[in-house]
């Protein structure tokens, strides 16, 4: 949705960032789930 809006406005990102930074007052529980074959 955002990428489409940028493209329509002639805006491009040379090096799009693909990570997310979270600022949380307490630790977040993370669970990695591997796909089943």
Break the fold down into its secondary structure elements and pairings.
Layout: H1 2-8
Give a structural overview.
With 37 residues, the chain is mainly α. Helices cover 19% and strands 0% of the residues. The protein has one helix spanning 2-8.
In short:
This protein is mainly alpha-helical.
Structural descriptors:
flat; single chain; 37 residues; 0% strand; mainly alpha; 1 helix
Q: List the uncertain runs.
A: none
Number of strands: 0
Query: Which overall shape is indicated by the principal axes computed on the Cα atoms?
Result: flat
Please state the average pLDDT score: 88
Structural class: mainly alpha
The number of distinct helices, counting runs of at least 4 residues, comes to 1
Into which percentage range does the β-strand content fall? Answer: under 5%
Largest sheet: none
Radius of gyration: 16 Å
In helices, the fraction of residues equals: 10-25%
Distance between the termini: 32 Å
Q: What letter string, H or E per element, gives the SSE order?
A: H
């Amino acid at each position: 949705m955002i990428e489409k809006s940028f493209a329509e406005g002639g805006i491009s990102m040379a090096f799009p960032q693909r990570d997310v930074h979270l600022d949380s007052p307490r630790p977040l529980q993370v669970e990695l789930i591997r796909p089943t074959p």
